[in-house]
Specification:
By secondary structure, the protein is mainly α. It contains 15 helices and 2 strands.
Length: 382
């Protein structure tokens, strides 16, 4: 693991605030490029099918119901919605039935990772409404609101949690017409954003997020002494906000803050996109393990494409960002047979699961890619 150095709080904040488009070879090179054409929807869909089919063919056992695999199924069901594929629906249904629509840790769990499976169960419920599909996720969230330490709001101590658990709270609240879910969601979110570790994990100066309190100013830095703003950690945040906004009515309480926060994040990452369309594993230091990485890039593409489609950011400014990301992923990370490479595997920082190579993959990375592509397809020409 690379040597870490401590930086004074003031110096770290200064470095973080300087994150705007000044990284060599990133946004400035990309901004000079001719804006790429948006691929046709059929072209995007063909690539998505190839990637999904490769993964399914290699995994006849659909696997566990942990957060990583649940993220894959979230992406697969987004693709199923786009294509109407009965094969994808059957594969996802078989996975959910294998686990009896249950959660890791059971209904008493408060851990956001364990709630991620609820997203796919909700997707399956929307296609084929049967109440038992929601029994475990709804019971678990209801317990957090009303029974199990209802005033405890510090469960989401890492930024990944926003992707794992924000959407189920939002979706069940809307489905049941119960505002208590939305209020509990915001209480948990607000702690993560403004209180965790002291100042909260959100850096208002950049619009980006620290993965957890260890990386806050004065904590872990890159070997060059710059902040560590992990790409996939911020990608989880982008994905969580996009999914939550899709679920909530436009005028719902707190929705304006979620929108503004996603816009800030989308704008911040657009400023540091690499010329090849990818994002570095450390958004604040392009010398820190440089190289293409698929999972963070896919989630930034997903968040950007959603923000464009929802009218939160300008199409002319941000569609080129999304298309560059897609083209980079397709030409660099997608193998001819659909295997998806350059995915940083499980971890919590840029150094995790290194080296990241053409042959590095993971279920959640495939899910992120499927989410990204289906969202871009909504913007594409038919």
């Amino acid at each position: 693991m690379h040597r870490r150095r401590l930086l004074s709080g003031a110096a770290a904040l200064t470095a973080a605030a300087a994150l705007t488009p000044t990284l060599p070879g990133t946004a400035r090179a990309a901004s000079r490029a001719v804006p790429p054409d948006v691929p046709r929807r059929a072209e995007i869909t063909a690539v998505l099918r190839r990637v999904a089919d490769q993964w399914i063919g290699a995994h006849t056992d659909p696997g566990d119901n942990g957060w990583a695999n649940a993220t894959f199924f979230s992406g697969l069901l987004a693709l199923q919605r786009l294509t109407g594929s009965t094969r994808y629906l059957a594969y996802a249904r078989g996975w959910a039935e294998k686990h009896a629509y249950g959660l890791n840790g059971g209904v008493t769990t408060r851990h956001a990772d364990n709630h991620c499976a609820g997203q796919a169960y909700l997707d399956l419920y929307e296609r084929e409404p049967e109440e038992q599909k929601l029994a475990a996720i709804e019971t678990s969230l209801h317990r957090m609101i009303h029974e199990d330490q209802p005033d405890k709001n510090d469960d989401w101590w890492w930024d990944d949690a926003l992707h794992m658990a924000m959407p189920p709270f939002a979706r069940i609240g809307v489905l049941r017409g119960d505002p208590a879910y939305g209020e509990k969601l915001y209480a948990l979110y607000d702690h993560t954003k403004r209180a965790e570790g002291g100042p909260g994990l959100y850096d208002a100066a950049t619009g980006l997020w620290y993965r957890d309190k260890r990386f806050l100013p004065g904590g872990i830095t890159s070997p060059a002494g710059r902040p560590v703003l992990w790409s996939r950690g911020n990608g989880w945040v982008a994905g969580g906000h996009a999914k939550t906004l899709r679920a909530l009515p436009r005028g719902a309480r707190h929705t304006a803050e979620y929108r503004d926060t996603l816009v800030r994040l989308v704008q911040a990452v657009a400023a540091v996109q690499r010329a090849d369309g990818f994002w570095n594993v450390n958004l604040a230091d392009d010398t820190h393990l440089p190289g293409p990485e698929t999972s963070g890039t896919s989630f930034f593409l997903y968040g950007t494409a959603y923000a464009i489609g929802a009218g939160l950011v300008g199409r002319d400014t941000h569609l080129p960002v999304a298309v560059r990301a897609w083209n980079g992923l397709v030409t660099t990370a997608v193998h001819p047979d659909g295997f998806l490479g350059y995915v940083q595997n499980v971890g919590d920082r840029p150094e995790s699961s290194q080296p990241v190579t053409y042959d590095s993959t993971a279920n959640f990375g495939v899910g992120a890619f499927l989410l990204a592509g289906t969202e871009l397809a909504r913007l594409a020409r038919s």
